[in-house]
Design brief:
The protein has 350 residues and is an alpha+beta fold. It is 23% helix and 29% strand. Helix 8 crosses helix 9. The mean pLDDT is 94.
């Protein structure tokens, strides 16, 4: 058994298929809410996420990821009629026409072969070859976000085992979505509606944005190299001076900083200086990988969904709340039929 298997087996659990949420709850705030008190090691629950205000305090600062999911799942057809599914990721540095992507059945393609989006025969891509697990496609022209909106689909998670629907274009997008470019949603934010946000603001709960563009790494399983190097996939982020200033004031005034989701937490940990206990305004790339034993000092609370077993996300949550309490919380959720993954229920660790 490798050290990876040995380390991750403790974070494995059996999830019945019926507890994987295939559709969103009727309303955004209508999912269930698990409450995990780190200080008292207590687990309880609220009927609905809309009840979260009972556990928030005036002055709390909730940090959300304002990234927007792009319509990057594109079905491409070759001259023979065969269809290839592709998820476009980002432009290749040096050529704005070349895009990396996750391309199914690429072994059937020949170098230089043309592909066009279904129902868009006048627009084509050229297969330029492979780059490790990724493929490179060269577009006829520089792609704009409007092109993806025209011929692409929202890239809902593959474990949903269904095609995306018009409802997904709305519900697999948070109310905070602003800057396009992600290929997955920051799912903790999916539980907030405009009405809930305004109700919390009336309680003097504050909301501030960060941006982390979710990319290819969200589809990758953990590797032995991740554990050895303590690094994950790299993703671009932005922490504005306005957000950092609000967070630094909150810190000085002993108000809680609460991350809405693990992507917001990755940004906060990437910009927080534990020596000065301040948040730095900056942008760049982060490959931060946190697991139990790593101190998480940038937040006092975390709102998150229930994650895949043996994943970097369950390790990150465990770094914040402790492995034993997190696993106990997951078993509680399993026994009480909470819904898991992107469209599932939520937990608030505080």
């Amino acid at each position: 058994m490798s050290s990876l298997d040995s380390s991750l087996n403790e974070y494995d659990f059996h999830l019945p298929e019926e507890q994987i949420a295939k559709e969103p709850a009727k309303t955004r705030e209508g999912s269930r809410l698990l409450l995990v008190n780190r200080g008292a090691s207590e687990i309880s629950e609220a009927p609905y996420f809309s009840n979260i205000g009972s556990w928030l305090r005036p002055g709390d600062v909730l940090v959300y990821n304002e990234t927007k999911v792009s319509h990057r799942r594109v079905y491409l057809q070759v001259a023979s009629g065969r269809v290839h599914e592709s998820i476009f990721l980002e432009e290749v540095i040096g050529n704005p026409l070349d895009w990396t992507c996750i391309l199914k059945n690429r072994a059937k393609l020949k170098l230089g072969e043309k592909l066009h989006p279904l129902s868009f025969p006048n627009f084509s891509f050229t297969y330029m070859g492979a780059k490790e697990e990724l493929s490179i496609l060269r577009a006829d022209k520089k792609l704009e976000e409007s092109d993806f909106d025209a011929f692409g689909n929202i890239p809902i998670p593959p474990y949903l085992k269904r095609e995306s629907t018009p409802e997904d274009s709305d519900r697999y997008q948070t109310i905070f979505a602003k800057t396009p470019g992600s290929v997955a949603a920051p799912t903790a934010g999916l539980h907030f509606s405009e009405e809930l946000k305004e109700n919390l603001r009336k309680q003097n709960v504050n909301f501030v944005p960060v941006e982390l563009r979710i990319g290819y790494g969200t589809f990758q399983p953990l590797s032995e190299q991740n554990l050895q190097e303590k690094r994950l996939h790299s993703e671009s982020f932005v922490m504005s001076s306005e957000t950092s200033e609000i967070l630094n004031v909150a810190r000085r005034e002993n108000q809680r900083v609460i991350a809405i989701g693990t992507t917001a937490l990755r940004v906060l940990e990437s910009v927080f200086d534990p020596a000065s206990k301040t948040y730095e305004a900056k942008s760049g790339q982060t490959d931060i990988f946190l697991m139990p034993g790593d101190p998480i000092l940038s937040i006092q609370g975390l709102i998150t969904n229930f994650h895949l077993p043996k994943s970097s996300l369950i390790l990150l949550v465990s770094a914040f709340a402790g492995k034993d309490l997190v696993l106990k919380s997951y078993h509680y959720a399993l026994e009480r039929n909470f819904r898991f993954y992107s469209y599932g229920d939520a937990m608030f660790l505080f």
